[in-house]
Amino acid sequence: MTSISLARRGSGRSGAGRRRRMASEQFAGWSFVTPGVAIIVLFGAVPIVWSALMSFQKNNLLTSNTPFIGLKNYQQMVHDPVVSQAIQHTLVYTALFVPGTMIAGLFLAVAMNRKIRFINLYRTAAYATMAISTISEAIVFIWLFDPSYGVVNYALGKIGVPAQQFLNSPSEALFVIVAMTIWGWTGFAVVVYLAALQGVPRELLEAASIDGAGAWRTFRRVTLPLLSPASLFLAVWLTINALQLFDEVYLSTQGGPLNATMVLVYYLYDQAFQQFNFGYASAIAYFLFLIILVITAIQFWVGRRFTYYRS
Amino acid sequence: MSEPRAGGAALTDERGEAGGRHLAGAPEASRRQRARKKRKLPFSPWHLVLIPASLILLFPFYWLIVTSVETPSEALHFPPELWPHVLRFANYVDAWNSAPFGHFFLNSAIVAVTTVLTNLVLCSLAGYAFARFRFLGRGVLFAVIMATLMVPFQVTMIPQFIITKWLGVHVLAAVGINHLGALILPNAATAFGIFFLRQFFRTLPIECEEAARVDGASRLTVLFRVVLPLATPALATLAALTFLDSWNNFLWPLIVTTSTNQMTLPLGLATFQGAHSTEWTLLMAGNVMSLVPMMVIFFVAQRYFVRSVAVTGLGGT
Questions:
Q1: Same structural domain for residues A45 and A93?
Q2: Across B88-94, average pLDDT
């Protein structure tokens, strides 16, 4: 191995050889990256700049000219009552969905992190929710929560609670969507937490118990801090996905009833591909991007203080 | 991730008590232990938690299947029958006849498989070049790719739609609106894939590659014969994640597809739901049919899917 690398270095030192090698590396580099990068530039980078420009234009597909109108789209957004409703619903949804999924995932992962009988069956039950598409999930939950024939109302009736309107009720619809998405993401959270739990070294847990810590204290003081990188990842990942909620809303309520489930991405979709206000929709898209950036930055900033990295 | 072992919190509980025994001055701990012994269950108490939890997780699937084989009048019976009395498989025939589920499945399969293959090839090429070659503009190109990785899809979807429409009219109809190519081309290479493989390639020892080069292998041969065989775990992860993403993608197909014959499963199912929103038995039969392929794939390759998701969560390979 030494002689090979010496030989290589030797040929590299002679001027002409090195130049030829560098030229061929230039050529190889560019030909290797061009196909992939071309696609990403065309469908990623160009659209980023384009939609930024569009957000300053009046562009509604009906007229061919798209005049620049400065900050008009953004001003319209500030005064649009639906936008403020959508922001509110998106944030409420995120604030319920993210901790809900994390707690469910953590609880199940801790329960499933042991060698007992049927454990693979239990785990598979959780993983199964990862294989179901958002559309299938939404259709099942619309049926489960059907106000007239749904099995959830039947179960509530058993414990003496009157039948609810669920997705037809402005005060309940968003919570039904929270429930269905938590169910849909539980498998994901379980997998992430289970993997992290397997990385917790036994020595630390043994040391804690020798020092007299009980099960709960060991979990609280040793396991949980060791899981903090996984928790931070889940918090960020789930939040990014929650802020982009769309599929379930499209399927179940289309933003209704009375805009009760109008979230940012649904409104953006509606403006872009139902009303064809591309300029206005682009402004909303950039606003969404800003929200995601700010919240993610806060999470990383706060998370840094509570996250414990072993290495 | 290897086969999960019972570690972590499992040990917390048992060791907590085992440790207590060794502590001479801990009468409370030993009292607790004795109390536990007296009412010891013949099985792990965790079953008492896991059985109800699994039932809750599985109930939507159960209810989906039950409704799919009920008669319409049985489905609209309240209180609901928790167990079907007659199995009416005709629902499946009806669903199959009222929407082209076979077509949807085929479209989904074509799009997902092609997207996985193009991603494996294009991201390997680009990721390897970014990891190993020095060329003019490498830093800038890589920064551009990283920037697109951060931006949510909603920001780019309107220009993507306009570009796709333009490409279909002026360049190649097969990648335009209402063609499967429109679902493949924009996702044929992803910033995540390039970044992910670059990170992996950088962890491989460079000596093998150098030795192969000295022996006269071309750069392409080195990548395909030396590097990629070493990178199978990373490639499997990328394949699994790309497949899941492509298979479940909804918003982009919704935007660029209006013709029923070009719909993928999620979009076809959503359209089917729109047309039969109150025919629950039909709807659930269609739902089961569109769910089964992914369920089968998922459980056959469960190891890969689970590991792939775990890998993204652990931020490495």
A1: no
A2: 91
